[in-house]
Amino acid sequence: MLFDAKRLAAVSLLALLAACQTVSAPSVITLDKAQGSSENISSLTATVNADPRNPESYNVRGTAYGRAGQNKDAIADFTTAIQLNPNFYQAYANRALVYRQTGDNQAALADYNAAIRLNPNYDGAYIGRGNLYRTANRNREALADFQKAIDLNTTDPRAYHNRGLLYQRDGQHKQAIEDFSTAISLRADAPEPYSGRGVSYLALGDDENAFSDFNMALKLNDRSAEYWTNQAIVFERRGDKARAAKSYARAAQLDPNYKPAKDGLARTRGTA
C-alpha cells in the first residue's frame, strides 16, 4: 500500500507540473478591471473625439477595449495609433497581446518584433514575445527574451515568473524558486508565482512550504481549479483523503474539464 501511495503522489505531481506550464502570466495590459467598463470607455471615446489625431488616446482606449474583451475594437484602436505614429512601440506590443488572445500568434510575433526594432530596450516587448515563445515550446528563445528583459533591469514580475516556469519545466527547481520569489517581491498580490513556487517546493519534497504557497495562491484567487488541486495534492500526500477529496471536488466544480482535479477526486473517493 505504501508503494501505491507513493506512485499516486508521483502521478499527481507530474500532472501538477504539466498543468502549471499552461498558466498564463499577467498580460501587457495591466489596467484595473474598472478601466474596461462601459463608463470608462465612453469617457475615453469622448477624449478620442476631442482630439482624433492623438495616437495616445487611441492606445489608451485600445487597452480599455482589451480589458473588456472587445478585441476587434482594441485592434482597430492600436492600428490607428500606429498609423498616426509609426514609431509607437507600446501600441505594437499592446496589439500583439490582443492578437495573441485571439489566437493569431503570427501577427502577435510580428508586432512584438516591430516593437523591439523600434525600441531595443523595451522590456515589455521581450517579456511578451518570450511568453509567446514559451507557450509554443520554443524554450531557448523564450529564455533568451526573459533574460534580456532581466538584463535591462526590468521591474516587471512576469520576466522572473516566466523564466521560473522554464527552469521548472527543465527540472531546475532551486533556480525556479528563486525566480518565483523575486516575482513575488515585485508584486505580492499576484497568485501565479505562489502557485509556481509551491509546485517547485513540492517537487523538492518540501511539502510545508508548498502548502503555504498554495494556500496563499488560494487566498489571492479562490476561483482557480489549479490552486484547489495544488492544495488537494498536499492533503493527499499527507494521507488526508477526506480533505483532499473536498479540495479536488471544489476544483472540479470550478472547472469540470480539469483532468488533474477529476483524476484526484476519483482516487481520493476510491473510484479510481
UniProtKB/TrEMBL annotation:
Residues 1-25 form the signal peptide. TPR repeats lie at residues 55-88, 89-122, 123-156, 157-190, 191-224, 225-258. InterPro entries: TPR-like_helical_dom_sf (IPR011990), TPR_2 (IPR013105), TPR_rpt (IPR019734), Ycf3 (IPR050498). One of its GO terms (biological process) is receptor-mediated virion attachment to host cell. SUPFAM superfamilies: Protein prenylyltransferase. Keywords: Repeat, Signal, TPR repeat. It comes from the Bacteria. SMART domains: TPR. GO terms for cellular component: cell outer membrane. PANTHER family: TETRATRICOPEPTIDE REPEAT PROTEIN 6, UDP-N-ACETYLGLUCOSAMINE--PEPTIDE N-ACETYLGLUCOSAMINYLTRANSFERASE SPINDLY-RELATED. This is Tetratricopeptide repeat protein.
